[in-house]
Write a structure and sequence with these properties.
Helices cover 65% and strands 4% of the residues. With 234 residues, the chain is mainly alpha-helical.
Amino acid sequence: MKLNRSFKLVTIYSIAMGFMEAAVVIYLRKLYYAHGFSFPLAPVDHDISVVELCREVATIIMLITIGLLAGRNRAEQFGYFLYSFAIWDIFYYVFLKLFLGWPASWMTWDILFLLPAPWVGPVLAPLILAVSMCLFAITIVHFTNKGVAVSMKRTERILLWSGSLIAIISFTEDYVSSKGITLWKNITDPSRSLFMELVNYVPQWFNWPLFLFAEGLILLSYGMYASRLKRTAP
C-alpha cells in the first residue's frame, strides 16, 4: 500500500506521543519506584492522582482529535484513531524498553489504564490488540484511497464492539473481582489517594481464554470486513 501524506504524519505524531507518554512514566517511576516498578503500586498523593486521571482523559482526546483531523470521512477518521492509538501504545513500550530496560518480558504485568477501573495485564495483551487495530486502520485507509465505501456492516460492527468490550473485561476482571469499582469513592476526599486500593493490590491472574476469545471476535470481524472490501474494490 502506498502511504499517503496523512498516514505518514499520523505515524510521526503517534510515535512522538508514545515518547511523551513514556517520558511521563519514566519521571513517575524515578520518583515512586527507585528500585524498579512492581505491584503493589506505591502511594500517590491525591493531587498527583487527579492529574494522572486527567492526563489519561487528555490522551484519549488527543487520539480522537488526530483521527478527526486526518480522516476524510467518518470511517477513515475512526481508522486513523485506531492507528494512532496502536502506534502510540507500541512505541510507548519501545521507549520504556530503550530507557528503562522495562518490560523484562512479554509477560510482565503492567497497569494499562485507570478508567473506570484499573486495567491490568501482561504487556503482550495490549500489543496484540494494537496489531489488530493497525490491520483495521490500514485496510480502511487503503480502500478509501481506492474509492471504496468502507462503512462496516451491522454484523461486522457487532463482532468488533463485542470483542472490544470483552477484551476490556479481561483487563479489568481481576481487579474488579477483588476490589470492586472503588476509584470514584475517593475523588472528593483530598486526604486520600484515588489509588488507595491499588496500594494493596497485586494481580493474581489474567484471563487469557477470555482475552483470546475477544481477539478472535475482533479478527473475525476484520476478516469479514477486509474480504468484503476486497470483493468490491475496482
